[in-house]
């Protein structure tokens, strides 16, 4: 396991949101890697007061951790939004305008 991986996932690990097998690997990495265990300590120091001051455990909504993790995993291959996204947006906009023109505008003008 590499330091980069451990440090990118340290918050998830500290939140106990890691799959047990991965958590075990991170734990063993932290036991011998001073650099990563220092990072873990710093993260813990920042995290704890935030939790304490809020008086509650911060629970991420279900699925959020996984989606963030997936994003982190894909960061290296991050590509700009595919062009069809833009066309989809224009299509949605066109539908909204059409809807307004057909249903809303006549109502406002009291045509019905
Ligand atoms: Zn390390």
Can you describe this structure?
The structure is a single chain. With 112 residues, the protein is mainly alpha-helical. It has 2 domains: 3-79, no CATH class; 80-112. The chain has helices spanning 3-8, 10-14, 20-32, 34-54, 64-74, 83-108. Helix 3 packs across helix 4 (34-54). The model has no long low-confidence stretch (mean pLDDT 81). The structure holds zinc ion (ZN). The site of zinc ion has 6 residues, from helix 1 and helix 4.
Main sheet characteristics = none
Cα end-to-end separation = 68 Å
Mean of pLDDT: 81
Tally of distinct domains: 2
Query: What is the overall shape?
Result: elongated
Gyration radius, in Å: 24 Å
Unreliable spans: none
Structural class: mainly alpha
The tally of beta strands, per DSSP, is 0
Ions and ligands = zinc ion
Strand content: under 5%
Helix content: over 70%
SSE pattern, N- to C-terminal? HHHHHH
Number of helices: 6
Entry keywords:
112 residues, mainly alpha, 2 domains, 73% helix, 0% strand
Helices, strands, pairings?
Elements: H1 3-8, H2 10-14, H3 20-32, H4 34-54, H5 64-74, H6 83-108
Helix pairs in contact: 3-4
This protein binds zinc ion.
The site of zinc ion has 6 residues, from helix 1 and helix 4.
Short structural summary:
Helices cover 73% and strands 0% of the residues. The protein is built from 6 helices and no strands.
